Amino acid sequence: MMNKILHTKNKWTAGACYVIGLMLVLMLSTAVFFIVILGVLDLQGPDWKWVRIYGAIVWLYFWQYVYYRWMKRHTTWWT
To answer: What total number of domains does the chain contain?
Structure first.
């Protein structure tokens, strides 16, 4: 079934799959960043505020780009 969805010509199916998948990737990557990475690094206090903020921004943009490249490679509806 997933193979049919990834190779569909229907714009609505492709768009819905992209948006839902992107939301899932961003939620998962956010949870990993705040629970695992910040938990391991122990960046507490006001001195680390900007590191946490900009680190989260870079982390989310990185995973958004990875998801975009993965979808572009494994789907046919980008062109």
So the answer is: 1
Distance CA(26)–CA(33), nearest Å, equals 10
53 is a domain residue: yes
Cβ contact 75:6 at 8 Å: yes
Q: CA distances (Å), 47 to each of 34, 52, 53, in order?
A: 17, 10, 12
Which three-class secondary structure state does DSSP give residue 79? coil
Tens-digit pLDDT profile for residues 57-78:
998 999 999 988 888 887 776 6
Please indicate, yes or no, if residue 7 is contained in any of the structural domains. Answer: no
